[in-house]
Amino acid sequence: FTRLRVDGEIVSVEDPPKLDRYKNHSIEVVIDRLVMKKGLRKRLADSVELALKISDGIVVLDFPGSKNGEMTLSEQFACLDCNISFEELTPRMFSFNSPYGACKTCSGLGFYQEVHPDLIVPDQNLSISEGALVIYNSASKTGFYAQMVKAVTKYYGIDPDKPYKDLPEDQKEILMHGSGGERILMDYEGRSGRGQFHIKFEGFVNNLARRHKETESDNSREHIEQFMIQKPCARCSGDRLNPVVLAVKVGSKNIADYTRLSADAAYKYMLELKLNKTQKFIGQRIIKEIKERLKFLIDVGLGYITIDRGSATLSGGEAQRIRLATQIGSGLMGVLYILDEPSIGLHQKDNKRLIKTLERLRNLGNT
Ligand SMILES: [Zn+2]
Ligand SMILES: [Zn+2]
């Protein structure tokens, strides 16, 4: 190389400027200078490649005399201006079941669960002694929780015989969210004897939330979930994937937008997708696959079903026809199918399509 660019000034390698050792300097190598014309494409490509090689993937293009100014290009998936970078995209990143794709905040669930006071006290007309706090109703009346409530009500002068709705707000607040670390003396009588000790009452909302997080038993987790409501995740707003993945779009839609479409609309979207030559070449096989599978769903009369629909919410007839669509897709032959009212819930106009589907299965050599 014969030229450098030091702090923006082009200098000769032979004659470098004096540099202040206590300052940061930008030192770049000038790889090539050319006026683009026919026949130079190869040289330009070689120069860019050389630049990428010695710089670990970053090249600056300067267009002297043009108002375009400079252009920094990077081989890494990174933007120097926004200071973000990410790994090379892989299929597993597009699944919320994979830690590579899942939203970090909700672990790919799309929602989070929160203990709600109204579920702990569903009937505010009851008093505490009548069982307003359903959380410990199922537990023993003499158990730890009952004795804890007794200690708390006694300490704060909460009337256990007053309907819950008539209790002052600050007392309800203590019951739900605790006493802020205040130590309460509690009488306790258990199988192993009786005694007195100090507890910190964290409140029922916090208590349930903590136990939900800490428990290793599915049973108690499920029990606690009765007192929880679901809220859409604040980070991904229910899209379940991380921001990098959601920033990837085909046409105008990311994968979450796309899976919210019905099979009909998703099929139409693929038909109308405008791609340039390179994109077409890259996408042709996957687009063909997607269209075929959507067509199977449409053929068995399920065009109205959205792709993100949970399988637990499907009716028996729908689930059966989805299995049928999968079967057609797999192209199996020599199989005996037993279908139990496959047209149930099917619109009259879709019966013909279903019958065609069955005939296709038969023509493949199935019975
Ligand atoms: Zn950027
Ligand atoms: Zn999320």
TrEMBL record:
Pfam families: UvrA_DNA-bind, UvrA_inter. It is found in: Cytoplasm. GO terms for cellular component: cytoplasm. This is UvrA DNA-binding domain-containing protein. Residues 117-226 form the UvrA DNA-binding domain. Keywords: ATP-binding, Cytoplasm, DNA damage, DNA excision, DNA repair, DNA-binding, Excision nuclease, Metal-binding, Nucleotide-binding, Repeat, Zinc, Zinc-finger. Residues 1-62 form the UvrA interaction domain. One of its GO terms (biological process) is DNA repair.
